[in-house]
Amino acid sequence: MKIKMIDARPGDGRRDAGSEAKLVRRACWLVPILLILGRPAYAAPSESDAVPVSQPAAHPEILEETNTGEAQDWKFETLLATSLTYDDNIFIQPTDKKEDFYVNIDPSFAFGVGNFRDALASFAAIPHFLVRTGEEDLPWKNFAYVSYAPDVIIFSKYHKEDDLNHDVRLAAQEERDLWTVKGDIHFQTESEPDIDVGRRINQTDYTADLNAAYALTGKLTGGSELYGNHTNYSGGLASTDGRATGYLDYQVAPKTAVGVAAAGGYLDVAQGANQPYEQALLQVKYLPTDKLSFNGQAGEELRQFQSQVQNRSQFVFDVSGSYDPTDSTELTLRGNRDTVASAEYADEDIVESVYQASIRQRFLQRLYLSVAGGFAHDNYENNEPNANVQRRDDYYFYQTALSSDITRHGTIQLSYEHRENNSSLAAFGFAENLFGFSASFLF
C-alpha cells in the first residue's frame, strides 16, 4: 500500500478516476511527504474561471510573456533531492525488528519545450518542497518533455537492500481558451516495504493516461479520460487495470459547478477472476475564493466477477479540500475509496478506504511547520468462490516536519513519522518510527 496526498488544485474539477493519482497503492514509503507540499501558489480566479478552462484574459501581462519565442525554446531542467533516514523497522515486521540508516539520492533530468518546470518539481521521487518554480501563475501551461529520475538507496548495515530504481516519464499538455488535452506515459521501479505482502519487495509500474476537456458552452464543460496501469512484483502477483471515463459539468453559480460522470473499467489479475466494472458518479466543484476550494465525486460501483462469485456493488468516493485562513496557514483534507488486486494472495481484491489531513504553518518568513496524519482501512474480498482470507488492516500514520527555504531554489527538512498497521492477521501488523533529513534543489 502506498498512500500519498493528491494535489487538489482549484479548477482541476474532477477526480482522475483510476489514474495514477490514486490515493492508495501498495508500498508505504511515500506516506506523508507530499502532504507537506500543499497547493502550489496560483492566481486569484475571476468569476469566469469557475469552469475548468484557463482564461488568459485575466493575466494579459503573463500571456504576452508566454507567447514569446523564448517560452517555447527547448530547454534542460534538473532537480536534485536527497535524504538521510533512520528507520527502526525497515522490514515492517511485528517482532524482531531490524533498524538501519539509509540514504536516498534522487537527481531528476528533463528535456522538453514549454513550461514544464512546475510539473517536473511535483513529480520528483523526493518532491521539491516549498520553493516557487516561477510558473505557478501562468494562465496556460503548454509543454512536452521527457524526464529520467534515478533513485539510489544505500543502507548502512543491510547492504543486500541497496538498490538503484528508475523513473522515466513522457508528458505533454496543451491548453487553450476552450479546451485542454494532456497525456502521460510513466515507467517506474521501486524497492520498498509493502503492507499487503508484509515485507520489502521490488515493484515495476507501467502507466499511461490521456484526458481532455472542452467548454461546450459558457456553462457546460465535457471531458474524458483513458487510463491504464500494469504492475509487476518480484515475488508477488501482477495485475492490470484499465479504465475509460466521461463527464459533464454545469456551472450553476459563478464559483460552483455540478456534474455527472460515468466510468467503465477492467481489472485483470494474475491469479483469480478478472473483473469488468462500471461507475455512476455525481461530482461538485466549489471555489468561492482563492483561499477555499472543494472537489468531490461520489457514486455507486458495480463489479462483475468472471467466476461463480456474485456481482458486488459498493459506494465509491474521492473528495478533497483546502483552506488557507491566512497567508501563512494552509489546511488540506482528502478521502478516497478504490479496489485493487492483492499482490500477496491469489483470488483476492483489496477495497481500500483512505482519509488524510494536514496543516502547514509558516513563521519567521522562511520556516514551515507541518503536521500530517491519516487512516486507511483495507478490506480483503474474494473474487473466487473458494478464496477466504478474512484479513482486515487498519493503517495509521502521522508526521511532523520542519522545513526551511535556504535559497531561492532549495529547501531542507527535518521530520519524524510514525506508522502502524493493525491487522486481523498478526503476521502483518507492525509499528515503525522514522527520523529524516531531506534536501531538494531545483536548478
Mean pLDDT metric: 83
Give, in order, the helices and strands.
HEEHEEEEEEEEEEEEEEEEEE
* Terminus-to-terminus distance: 32 Å
Q: What ranges have pLDDT less than 50 throughout 5 or more consecutive residues?
A: 3-71, 125-129
Largest sheet: 18 strands, antiparallel, barrel
What is the CA-based Rg, rounded? 22 Å
Shape type: globular
Discrete helix count: 2
* Beta fraction: over 45%
Q: Helix/strand-derived class?
A: mainly beta
Roughly what percent helix?
Answer: under 10%
Strand tally is 20
Topology:
Elements: H1 60-66, E1 74-87, E2 100-114, H2 117-123, E3 143-148, E4 151-155, E5 163-165, E6 167-175, E7 179-194, E8 199-215, E9 220-233, E10 239-253, E11 256-269, E12 275-289, E13 292-303, E14 312-326, E15 329-341, E16 348-363, E17 367-382, E18 392-407, E19 410-423, E20 430-442
Antiparallel strand pairs: 1-2, 1-20, 2-3, 2-4, 3-6, 4-5, 6-7, 7-8, 8-9, 9-10, 10-11, 11-12, 12-13, 13-14, 14-15, 15-16, 16-17, 17-18, 18-19, 19-20
